[in-house]
Amino acid sequence: MIEAQPQAASAAPLLxxxxxxxxxxxxxxxxxxxxxxQAGRYLPEYNATRARAGSFLGLAKNPDYATEVTLQPxxxxxxxxxxxxxxxxxxPDAMGLGLEFTQGxxxxxxxxxxxxxxxxxxxxxxxxxxxxxxxGAVAEIRRALxxxxxxxxxxxxxxxxxxxxxxxxxxEGRGSSDFRTVKTMLYARPDLMHRILDVNARSVxxxxxxxxxxxxxxxxxxxxxxxxxxxxxxxxxxxxYIRQIVAGLIxxxxxxxxxxxxxxxxxxxxxxxxxxxxxxxxxLDWTVDPRAARQRVAGKVALQGSLDPSILFAPxxxxxxxxxxxxxxxGPEAGHVFNLGHGISQFTPPDHVISLVDEVHAYSRKQRQG
Length: 370
Ligand code: CP3
Prior knowledge:
By secondary structure, the chain is α/β, with parallel strands linked by helices. β8 (260-264), α13 and β9 form a beta-alpha-beta unit. The chain has 16 helices and eleven strands. The structure holds coproporphyrinogen III. Its EC number is 4.1.1.37.
């Protein structure tokens, strides 16, 4: 059988570009929505694929499985973007630290970075040699997003952890409630901490640029633990490296701008400074007043957020009311991407997500008419 040569995925016109337009503060007919961790354990179909893959890493390291789970939430909900299924800890894994996920305990590293010699040995990984499964997944997802009429349904987001958030896992060797080990290094040996962060920043630049070249159409930097830093330390040990990354990224690809989003959880106090880092958009958690945030960034960047994920446990009418409240607070002007303030909980009833996505689309259309 002769198969027709498929056209390059990059040649397919983008059917729904509201997400990319909103990030660039261009007008859209509705407020786009996607959800952090939209592919995950709250979906029974995700759990079924994960069982077939044998483990979380088995899933993430296989481009066919990664593609399958990336598309699962889009089959259920009319979301406005897809996000690559992977994890932020792929980079330290590629550096040789030995990533493991133990059931119920989350991620850990066999060889955490603790000593001067450990730090000196760190190197930017060869992306093609160690992270080809990620760029392979990006390319495969782009092809899978093409509909029956040759159009790409929604854009694909690539992502990475921030240098500081990666360093937290690399030095602690696992998640932490007080970050004692990594903060001890930060205060006792700032030179070592800066060397780790510099290697991480250069790795993130190479990694995100490889994702962009493979077909990621926006890039998001997850600074999940930036909010654990003191004022002053945040600017020196996290934000400075986010700025370094933004300066090193490919900003235009396939004839389109590639917007960059930075999300520092707990970073609301530093919103103006994050907005001045060169990013196109800032992700907000639920502690931030959206109306004030709009004024504080003064049209310099788009905002993404910021619903408390726990609202998805409430009855559908409450979810719809909270969505309207947030849309009213952000206002109908260009430059808002609706999202949760952090990842969706594994205990979320999947049907509740329908109410949220539907209300955001319907009410934001109404707002623009009124
Ligand atoms: O948003 C998406 O749908 C894309 C997928 C995605 C995952 N991890 C899949 C995942 C993304 C964007 C991440 C980022 C990530 N990973 C972050 C930053 C964002 C955030 O949520 O703060 C962090 C800190 C990690 C590290 C990580 N990975 C932890 C701490 C854990 C265990 C915690 C948990 O929820 O169990 C993971 C595992 C992980 N990454 C899961 C998923 C779907 C669950 C693993 C499983 O299926 O068993």
